[in-house]
Amino acid sequence: MKTKFFTIALAFTAVIASAQITVTDVNLVSVGDIIYQAYDSIPSSAITVGNAGANQTWDFSDLQVHEYDTTAFIDPLGTPFASAHPTANLCVDSDGEYLYIKKDVQGMSIVGFDNLPFPKLILPLPLTYGANSTVGPVTIMDSVFVNVFLADSLAPIITLGQAQQIDSIKILVESSTEFNVDAYGNMTIPMGTYAALRMKTDDITVTDYFLYCTDTIFGINSGWYPMPAVIFPSEVEVTSSFQWWTNDAAVKFSLVQIDVDSLGFFETVDFLHNPATPASVASLSSEGFNIYPIPATNKLTIETINNNVTTLKLIDMNGKLILNNKFNTTVTIDVSNCAKGIYYLNLTTNAGVLTKQIIVE
After folding, report:
1. What is the pLDDT of residue 317?
2. Which of 4, 11, 41, 66 lies 20 to 30 A from 332 at CA?
3. If you ran DSSP here, which 8-state letter would residue 80 be given?
4. CB atoms within 10 A of CB 297
5. Domain residue spans in the chain?
């Protein structure tokens, strides 16, 4: 009896260990979230995208931090171009350039940049193992040019005798994106181990060329004809990426992203990290900076002891980026227009990062 119970328990544990997850919009970033990403520009040969299928193991624990970035997700309301993107419910301020995002139960999409619309689905939802979808094709270029390159003598050959004159050339570029959640298992990065889904994304761009040929004899066969491949063949470009997502409440973003070229090679690996975790990026000592006065009222001064080039970001409690600046000796920032309260001062050099709480009175 005990043996039977033990066997059932082992079987149940195996099912739990290999159970797949589902990622929905509630598992992703919201207004006020700050995401820390690192980049390994020389990943070891042990880092591979692995295979498709169930119960995979991806061990990326030896990823190294060569660069890092901080992304604060803020409320579009109050940003300079919010009125141009009424459907956006997330925004990222990147050095004064604004990215507008819509997140809902169906997915996460880019809405536009600054005041320019640029609709693009980047993450279909919900994510479950085996899910696949295709967006497009959508036309991203449809331009017509007066023909000054091809002789009219080619027209009868191209149109099989239907037309005699080449008037215009058209370039048609269409793009489609294929999403395929093709694997699940456990992903280990320096920050920890997580149950994860792998999503493979293929961006396919097809460029076709057409000629408008005129029937100068009968006038009934004029129209657009495909450009012969011997003159301008169709061009197909495929770029792929792999992303690993988890429904862990503490993550809210992709664990890892790897972009792959047409030959299957990749260089930089983007991965999530926690600047407070020694296993990821080095934490700078506050002794390397003089920051005063705290609390601040009108001005806040930051001095670097070693004169390192430093990126400064001031972020409020809602995740809104208040200031983004660079300096290498001393900088004084005006906080007189900041609402009273607690802020986070993020200081980043090539040696690491320091996050310090600031009070404005």
Report:
1. 64
2. 66
3. T
4. 13
5. 35-69+133-272, 286-360
How many other C-beta atoms lie within 10 A of the C-beta of residue 54?
11
Chain mean pLDDT for the chain = 86
Within 8 A by CB and 6+ apart from 150, the residues are 166, 169, 211, 231
Helix (H, G, I), strand (E, B) or coil at 9: helix
Selection from 29, 9, 50 nearest residue 260 by Cα: 50
Residue 105: phi and psi, rounded to 5, are -65, -20
- CA angle, corner 186, sides to 273 and 126, nearest 5? 85
Of the candidates 8, 11, 14, 26, the one whose C-alpha atom is nearest the C-alpha of residue 249 is 26
Cβ atoms 173, 205 nearer than 8 A? yes
CA angle 283, 288, 289 (to 5 degrees): 110
Residue-wise pLDDT tens digits, 57-66: 999 998 988 7
Q: Give strand ranges (E) for 215-264.
A: 223-226, 235-245, 256-260
DSSP secondary-structure letter at 23?
B
Task: Reply yes or no on whether the pLDDT at 360 is more than 80.
Answer: yes
- Beta carbons within 10 angstroms of residue 243's beta carbon: 23
Sheet (strand 321-327) strand order = 321-327, 310-316, 341-349, 352-360
DSSP characters over 162-189: S--EEEEEEEEEEEEEEEEEEEEEEEEE
| Per-residue confidence (pLDDT) for residue 208, from 0 to 100 | 96
